[in-house]
Amino acid sequence: MSGRAASGFGPRRGRREVVEVAERRTPDRRLDQLLHVRKQRLGRLDRERNDARRAWRERRCDANALKRRWRDARELTQTQWAAARAAFSDMRITSGEFRKARAVYERMKKEAAQLRVDSQQMLRACRAAGADFFEARRKAMQADRQQEKLGVLRDELRAAEAAASAEA
What we know:
The structure is a single chain. The chain is mainly α and 168 residues long. Helix content is 82%, strand content 0%. The protein has helices at residues 3-7, 30-89, 95-167. The model has no long low-confidence stretch (mean pLDDT 90).
């Protein structure tokens, strides 16, 4: 009697054939990594879009305020000049006072013209900021669409891998 049989393990068995077990494949994480990087990029593009929108809104507000200042200055200039002409025509002021009023009118007209030039420059800057916003918005929307496509692709690949492993 052998030592094994006496120890209660039963008779010696023959050699068994090694069963082939499919090795676990390490999952491919490249698509997940790409999605992560794209998500970070999408976050950056969203921040840039929001900053561009905020800058555009501020510029629009500044441009509108400057335009109102120009219109008010123009109206005040015209009102002052009309009052000076009417007073001179009614002979309530002297010709010297009228010349002073004309000098004031000319100065106010130049200031209003400068406000108009400043307003036009501000408007150009505002339009450029709007163009920057819409470009940033387009990039963010495009990146979002790419992110969605990659997410769908990843889900389809995982479903195909699950179906293939279920068959095996």
